[in-house]
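FAQ: What does a ligand-bound record look like?

Like this one, built around pyridoxal-5'-phosphate:
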Amino acid sequence: MKRIYMDNNATTAVRPEVLDAMLPFYREHFGNPSSIHWAGRETGAALEAAREKVAKLINCSPAEIVFTSCGSEGNNLAIKGAAEALRERGNHIITTAVEHPAVLSTCKYLEKHGYEVTYLPVDGDGMLDIVALEAAITEKTILVSAMWANNETGTLFPVDKIGAVARNHGICFHTDAVQAVGRVPVDVEAAKVDLLSISGHKIGAPKGVGALYVRKGIRLVPLIHGGHQERNRRGGTHNLPGIVGLGVACDLAGRDLPEVSQRLRRLRDRLEQGLLAAIPESQVNGHPSERLPNTLNVSFNYIEGEAVLLFLDMQGIAASSGSACMSDAFGQSHVIDAMGVDPMMANSAIRFGLGYDNTCEDVDRVLEILPAIVKKLRDMSPFYHERDAASVTA
Amino acid sequence: MKRIYMDNNATTAVRPEVLDAMLPFYREHFGNPSSIHWAGRETGAALEAAREKVAKLINCSPAEIVFTSCGSEGNNLAIKGAAEALRERGNHIITTAVEHPAVLSTCKYLEKHGYEVTYLPVDGDGMLDIVALEAAITEKTILVSAMWANNETGTLFPVDKIGAVARNHGICFHTDAVQAVGRVPVDVEAAKVDLLSISGHKIGAPKGVGALYVRKGIRLVPLIHGGHQERNRRGGTHNLPGIVGLGVACDLAGRDLPEVSQRLRRLRDRLEQGLLAAIPESQVNGHPSERLPNTLNVSFNYIEGEAVLLFLDMQGIAASSGSACMSDAFGQSHVIDAMGVDPMMANSAIRFGLGYDNTCEDVDRVLEILPAIVKKLRDMSPFYHERDAASVTA
Amino acid sequence: MYSEKVIDHFTNPRNVGEIENADGIGEKVSSSCGDRMKVFLKVEDDIIKDIKFQTYGCGAAIASSSMMSELVLGKTLQEALDLTNDQVADALGGLPAPKLHCSNLAADALHEAIKNYRAAKV
Ligand SMILES: Cc1ncc(COP(=O)(O)O)c(C=O)c1O
Ligand SMILES: Cc1ncc(COP(=O)(O)O)c(C=O)c1O
Ligand code: FES
Ligand code: FES
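The answer part, i.e. the structure of the complex:
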């Protein structure tokens, strides 16, 4: 059975060029880049070369890149670090109801420590209302954290407008761009971003590496105190192979982005239109146009998403229900929830995250298999039968 | 020129068996272990297998292992996490003057947040006085953080005694065992440890992965908030290849430890005795017997350590001056300083950290080269000439 | 982290040593790291005929000492007094930021030696 992986918003395979570039750094060039001897010099140069590549992809200067271990660390460092550094100026943070758990639970944590957090709502497409953002700002607002692209629906926030509002009010602006970087053009200058989180394993780099963009002049209390690495912003010996991999992945992403995103968009649209046509009472969750080109979040009323995923899995197709985290899969998605989607519709939401390796055949196979799965589950569902009964009665 | 790497306390090469085990997890088995589909199941099993291996090496149960990105993260998580969780019970932390920067700067940070920290002194061998520890305990003491093995001198603290004292007083005990695990036997039960930090890249696993042992029942506020990974103790997608590598490295370390540590001790002793015999007015910094088998910290009076390292480097020999961190290399080592070593002697301290790949020839080559380097630098040193003059006059 | 020039002067430092019956001796101890340099001068007709140094210090300190000695050998005392720490660092092809202070030793010790020479002559 051919395995089809369509969960690239959860994690991606490492790209071959990335792995090739990493390999020499495990056993040959393994020195600590902070060391003064040959073994350190070799890796020191590779570290800075990678930093330049990451910086180039998002249009910042290399000194503004802090390497981290993952997107979650970046979000924690950005939010806790800025909140603490700016504590004298205020204690109010604005974020949105649809952020990744790494942002939301960090904000919840800060609420226990004297911070006040506003969670902005989104509309039915998962879109943020920029007027609501303006209205939420108080004298005490020190930080806005709003994601670039939503991991569950792919909805793209108007980051440039958010950045302009924050800049006008002199408020620090963090964006979780873990799903956006490498998938859509990201420019920290154009968007007036101050802090931006990146995760390697979403863009063909390995797990265990990420980066945080920290605009020059933005003060940040470190999350991981330690040595002088990363200009005192992140202690710990550098993950050289990972960092080298992230550099190459950013390089490739920058080079391929226009072509790949167009290709994935076409595949995604084919999948979307095919499913909507074949399965009645299905709907797309997320913004019709302002959306990541690779992402499709779709609901099939009357059935449960997990059951759909299990059947897909048995046919070798890997998709997911929103957040990659299993424990979350059992509860309802806070994102779909915040969009005001009817609970039963929400419960059936599943997410396809297309990736570099997906083909048209992959899409067609899903189109071949999924309608039957939905039918089978609906046939089992009391809600489905009651609806039939209701419409018959009506 | 043959390159000789003797900086294994800074970082080690990944062992070939470790790299082999990691490779399938970059492109073949790359799924997110939190996912419910085939791609996640494959890696989920590997994740738990690695957890068991790490647990076995330190004699704990797998559920007590939290995977981290490095030793510094483990130290930050342990100290900040326990300090916050125990805040109601008290605000006093005891540590030692010779801890790694990841512990010391975390403690300094906590001092700004209402915690009081006692930094216990050490004696001339870098050894901790257990009586001083007892004397430092107050009603408000909530945490003792004392390292298992010192990274600069290799001195081994009497961890079992520290653990017994802490346990008797109902105080949580964290030990930074980054240099100890895999080099000397580490048993969390025997030592009555509650929290213990491990770093992969010191024992032949890759950079970018570590672990924190958290004794069952010990409460900890997460450092990286996010998803439900690691039983809510550490958010972020698992670094599967790194974790698999750490598992294999722990396995190998457990298997090889007796033989390897004996071999390295013999090499280290040969180096030590050879240098002391060939170079007058040199001394070992660290405990004569209670010391990591692979570590030699040695001073050559009248000259500067960095200059020695540069000359060694030109001959292909990688050693270091204490902490791997370059910026530290310029100042004096806080460890050697705390041992009360005469400043000029302290300034000349260099560290050899032997590793798995070192041979007897490596040692002999250092013995061949280093005396001449010291002589050359002493010939340049005004202090050395004044000493001659002084003794001639006398 | 060090330029090739630094490594060259560090590996083969020029003018290391001591001048017996030197005309001027100067010394400087770094306030930031405790490193120390000593300069010995032989002067004829206001020209530095010979220069030797002893340095206790890091690679940058030793290279700076050597470079300084090369820069002023055969120069007039006034030219030597005009030599700045920055010029020494520049001549070495630059120094890493945390190592800039190391070049201070060289010019300062040299100027001290000239001062002492002039004081002794009076
Ligand atoms: C004793 C000790 N603790 C902590 C660390 C930090 O480990 P890592 O570099 O993995 O963050 C090191 C190594 O640098 C160490 O030697
Ligand atoms: C939007 C978003 N933010 C943050 C993260 C966390 O990234 P990581 O798994 O690298 O910690 C993810 C992925 O899980 C994400 O999709
Ligand atoms: S019955 Fe299993 S999640 Fe509700
Ligand atoms: S560190 Fe002292 S002179 Fe360079």
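Follow-up question: can I read anything off the structure? Yes, for example: The two ends of chain B are 45 Å apart (CA to CA).
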